[in-house]
Amino acid sequence: MFKKRINYKVPRNLLVLFELLALFLIFAHDKDNFNRNTLILGMALISIIYISSFILLRISTGDNYIFLIVTMLISIGIIMIYRIDPELGMKQIIWTGIGILLFFISYFIIKSIKGWKNWTLLYGGASIALFLITFIFGSRIKGSLNWIIIGKFSFQPTEIIKILLIFLLASYYANYEKYKKVKYGSYCLIGTLYLFIAFLFVQKDLGTVILFYFVFSAIQFIYEENRRLILYNTLFFLISGLIGYFMFSHVRVRFETWLNPWIYIDNKGYQITQSLFAIAAGGFFGTGIGLGYPDFIPEVHTDFIFSAICEEMGIFTGIGLIMLFLILVYRGFKIALSQDEKFFKIVALGISILFGIQSFIIFGGVLKMIPLTGITIPFVSYGGSSMLASFIALGILQVASEDLNLEEIEHE
Amino acid sequence: MNKELRRILIVLTGICTLFVSLIVYISYFQIFKAEAVKNNSYNKRLWIDEEKILRGSIIDRNGKILAYSEKVDDAYKRFYNYGNLYSHVIGYSYREYGKSGLELKYNNTLLNIDETTPFHELKNIVKPNTEGNTLKLTIDHHLQEYSRGLLQGKRGSIVSMNPRTGEIYSMVSLPDFNLSNLREDWNDIMEDEGKPFLNRATSGLYTPGSTFKVLTAIGILEDLDPNSRYECTGSITIDGYPIKDYKGRAHGSVDLREALVKSCNTYFAGKGIELGKGKLGEIANNFMINKKIPFDLPTAKSTFPYKENLGKTDIAAASIGQGKVLVTPLNMALIASGIANKGEILQPILVKEAISPDGEIVRINEAKKISDGIDIFTANEIKNMMVEVVERGTGTNGKIQNIRVAGKTGTAENPSGKSHAWFIGFAPADDPKIAVAVILEEDGSTGGRTAAPIARNIMIEALNTIE
């Protein structure tokens, strides 16, 4: 037993090794400002992650890799955020702690309550309510009207709505036989989605617009029996995209700076070109932690964390990060495929697609492969709302990875 | 396989494709695009990296230090030993104003950051390089100083080079500016009407005047009878426009040799029309006119737009180097070199080699033919005529005792009203060691009177001091 615990072949232990080395690098780089609290927090984080994955193994019969993949992502993210700004790094560590707690809480809540698949209208209603609250009480931070500030805390309701959207889709298609008989059932669903997208568009949160659209379209592609609707959906999206392009300058700016940012290098192309400079500077192996200049990029700790990682850890780490998401998505799909309970099957698909598309949008954006839309990398970028929501989603995915039908039979 | 499973797999494949395309794109970017992106002058990292590296020195062909860097108060500072002398060759490297000249072109070599193989990157992490390479030029500092001295107080340019190797010995362009006082002088330099920033040697475009007759003469040697005689009356009328000889003097009965020696405009104007614009253009092209000259510094393209719809008057004017022909002094030096080098044109070179901090020498430029020019027989014939130009014609001021000099003068009319004085030539004619092009901009005098003596002095100095 003990021997197994220190065995290097156990991924959990490899992760600890990685974290210890990274922590050492951070201290080596920042040795002048050595801070005992940082060390304690760092060690605390490592232990929390270690113990959590250990506990998870005991309590969950499901997939035990997704949590490990996520903690690896978090480790890379925290190292980079701490290196950019130690204060934010400390906060991120705390967010991670709360996130892991929420992961377990949501795991237990989702698992203990039955009937999730019956509350379609609730999910839709709650989402719309959250949007309305954002409009009434919301504040504009960095150009997007999608923050609610309560006291010292601010959070983005859209992060919660993402999960509600997936639940809405899952409960709709899990009860497809029933809703199919309702006249224009699927049209109502599309209508609701476009209402969400309209809300997001007004908030100028283009990244989330794309994200919602792709999550919805993928689920619709798999489960909608009225195939013509998929065509309508695609056409409608393209047309409204075109209209958006010609009517709204902030949409046009994204395209212009994507096609040729260099001529706007002094103003609207500044961020993306700085990002490209950083990635180019890093080369294959990176400059080394603390030896690059990622802070030349505005917003580097959130949207542009990937460029910072590429600069200081090289594109090999960047590719590693992309592959971690690839594995996460793959595990998610595997979970969905082996889940017999339809609601959780769709939820697992939705969450996997969410993680996949969200990370793709921002990876591709900062690389200038696709137009840049501000969005966070789940688990990697700095940000409380994003971190917590992603952990809740992960908790749900963990539930979905278990054999739920079997359990019900046992209980009965 | 049921429908649901199949569709799920399609979606999974789609997402996987997106991720794989990300990996392909980032690798493509890193391998093919990163280098250019990194060197964008807006990249602040360039300066930060540079400030950590001791920028390499620049030395002349004999090892004389022309520019170097040294640590002053924790930061490297660039020093230029000869303020004005190398303003256009070496150029400057200032954070505020950017870079120019060789400082720009060989920036990576001077900083020793040009290799970006993964191995080199690894080595850089372990042992970051702190010292750049030294650049060894083909310039001979003494001749450079001497050349500039001869041009002092005038506007114009001098290019002298080794016709057998293409190595530039001296390259002067006046007015110039002081590399060391750039911060203080910047605004004055920008406003100066003499355009001190313009490197006249490589980018100044001038009417070549009679020096261009060398090319027309080559055409006559190749296509027409050089021995047929022509009666020069001092003026010829083409399509109603008169073309006159210098001061309207008649040269009497001339063949090609006599016409070149006396620089007879009417003869060449008439023969030029006989040759046609196609032939003239072909020869011009062979001597790098209308072509980009590959060089260590940016070059302007000399032009002779022979493909345009040229009338007889235009062709006649072009035959004597007037009208639409525009050339750079470097191009004229190449023409002289080409004739000296048995008709073959070599690439002009300014940087010989780079010397690494460990003393390892990397050759930067090799002698390389860039144009076939003309055949050796024609080259020999035109050379003999040019020798006579200096011995008894318009270029007698270029004569050197005991050494045969080949040359051609030019007095180029231009819109300013004051003619440019030109001289191109090389010496010794039978074993050429130095070729030179001199232009005095808007000098108002003839090439024979003012440009030829300068060229002569440079050739004497070069023959006496180099190697």
Question: Would you kindly provide a written description of the structure presented here, covering whatever features stand out?
Answer:
The complex is a heterodimer of chains A (412) and B (467). Chain A is mainly alpha-helical and 412 residues long. Chain A folds into 2 domains: 1-113 and 253-412, no CATH class; 121-247. Chain A has 17 helices and 3 strands. Chain A has helices at 2-5, 11-29, 36-59, 66-84, 86-112, 120-137, 157-174, 176-181, 185-202, 206-223, 227-247, 249-259, 270-282, 305-338, 342-366, 384-400, 404-411; strands at 138-141, 144-150, 153-155. In chain A, α7 packs across α15. Chain B has a domain at 144-175 and 188-348 and 372-465: Beta-lactamase (3-Layer(aba) Sandwich), CATH 3.40.710.10. In chain B, α9 (213-223) packs across α11. Chain B has a 6-stranded mixed beta sheet, with no helix packed on it. A 5-stranded antiparallel beta sheet of chain B has the order 8-7-19-18-17, sandwiched between helices. A two-stranded antiparallel ribbon of chain B has the order 4-5.
